[in-house]
From TrEMBL:
Superkingdom per UniProt: Bacteria
SUPFAM superfamilies: P-loop containing nucleoside triphosphate hydrolases
InterPro entries, alphabetized: DEAD/DEAH_box_helicase_dom, DEAD/DEAH_RhlB, DEAD_box_RNA_helicases, Helicase_ATP-bd, Helicase_C-like, P-loop_NTPase, RNA-helicase_DEAD-box_CS, RNA_helicase_DEAD_Q_motif
Q motif, short sequence motif: residues: 2-30
GO cellular component: cytosol; ribosome
Helicase ATP-binding domain mapped to chain residues: 34-207
Residue span, DEAD-box RNA helicase Q domain: 2-30
Species of the source: Pelobium manganitolerans
GO terms classed as biological process: response to cold
A Pfam family of this chain: DEAD
Gene3D superfamilies the UniProt entry points to: P-loop containing nucleotide triphosphate hydrolases (3.40.50.300)
UniProt similarity note: Belongs to the DEAD box helicase family.
Name this protein carries in UniProt: DEAD/DEAH box helicase
Gene Ontology MF term list: ATP binding; hydrolase activity; RNA helicase activity; RNA strand annealing activity
Length: 375
């Protein structure tokens, strides 16, 4: 395995990486960074969530920024507000020791657009945005992308599954007219994404596929409990109360399910609140402040709403409902055992779902331990 220095990353960025406990490149970083640093072609990187994609594109992108040009030179599009905020924070951390300041700005729905327009009047080199908010800014002529040379689509398949294809088409039609290079990162390449690749990306675009192996954090203990659907809530209450002051995230598949479960848990004196796509930005920020400040014990989340959640010292993840896709399990479980710490990921499964545990073990190269949560 090569070091970040051997990949061509400058010492000012390496110092910031080490400060954030990023010392050895992941597979996608090792393969993508040298290409993105030196080539001026489009790029397609297929890798699951949790493989280090932000650094894989972020470090080359930062190297290409000219701090003396006080205009937007790079654009990152991501599907959710939380992921947009996380990417922005990560890029900010990477630039801590840069010789000249590189300014990034996050824009997303749920915050007053006038506030964001005012921020964009300041010198800005990189903008991280959700698709809908970027379209709003372009239609108001409130953002200048004339000097953008790098466009990153992060979690591209999620953007399409959330209904953003028309917005992505508009954005790429605009940036392609400015001769920008496009870097696309996605866990899967569904047909709708193939259409975007065929229409907006060069035929000679570099393609990289990273295997599913070794993408789940090593510090996670994977467990499952067989629970009948009629007993699931009562078992969850016992389990969560047994955790005491430890904090964790409980995952549901739907917004309605997350909201209902949070209310039910609260009625049992468990400090729980839900975060999902229908929650306004002010309420989302309030819930996350409570959770990060440890005034909230349990966060009940959907897969999409949890994109970008980065909270230290979470003891566990509970899959109240199993996810539909392998990469969702990886993303969910990765909320615990961060920064070298230990944690566990517990899945509730009905007797009819036991085959899914076998599929997860085989597909993600992990082992599950069966636990008994009966009284």
């Amino acid at each position: 395995m090569k070091s970040f220095k051997e990949l061509g990353v400058g010492p000012q960025f390496i110092q910031a990486l080490e400060e954030n406990n990023i010392t050895a490149p992941t597979e996608i970083q090792e393969k993508a960074i040298p290409f993105l640093m030196t080539e001026e072609r489009d790029f397609i990187g297929q890798a699951q969530t949790g493989t280090g994609k932000t650094a894989a594109y972020g470090l080359p992108m930062l190297h290409k920024i000219n701090p003396d040009v006080k205009q937007i030179q790079a654009l990152v599009i991501s599907p959710t507000r939380e992921l947009t905020q996380q990417i922005n924070k990560q890029l900010f951390r990477f630039t801590k020791y840069a010789e000249k300041k590189i300014f990034t700005e996050a824009v997303y729905g749920g915050e007053k657009i006038d506030v964001q327009i005012a921020r964009l009047r300041r010198p800005t080199h990189i903008v991280v945005s959700t698709p809908g908010r970027l379209i709003d800014l372009l239609e108001r002529n409130a953002i200048n992308l004339e000097q953008v040379k790098t466009v990153v689509l992060d979690e591209a398949d999620e953007m399409l599954s959330m209904g953003f294809k028309a917005d992505v088409d508009k954005i790429l039609a605009y940036t392609n007219s400015k001769k920008s290079r496009t870097w696309l990162f996605s866990a899967t390449i569904p047909n709708a994404l193939k259409e975007i690749i065929d229409e907006f990306m060069d035929d000679d675009a570099e393609r990289l596929v990273v295997s599913n192996e070794k993408i789940v954090a090593k510090g996670i203990a994977h467990q499952y409990a067989v629970v009948d659907i009629n007993d699931k809530f009562d078992v969850a209450v016992r389990f969560l109360k047994a955790q005491g002051d430890k904090r964790g995230i409980v995952f549901c598949r739907t917004k309605a399910g997350a909201q209902a479960l949070a209310k039910q848990l609260y009625s049992k004196n468990i400090q729980a609140e839900a975060i999902h796509g229908d929650l306004g930005q002010r309420d989302r920020d309030r819930v996350m402040r409570l959770f990060k400040s440890k005034r909230l014990q349990v966060l009940v989340a959907t897969d999409i709403s949890a994109r970008g959640i980065d909270v230290d010292n979470l003891a566990y993840v509970l899959h109240y409902q199993l996810p539909d896709q392998f990469e969702y399990y990886t993303h969910r479980s990765g909320r615990t055992a961060r920064a070298g710490k230990k944690g566990f990921s517990l899945a509730f499964v009905a007797p009819s779902e036991l085959g899914k545990i076998d599929e997860l073990e085989e597909g993600l190269h992990i082992s599950f331990e069966k636990v008994d949560l009966r009284q």
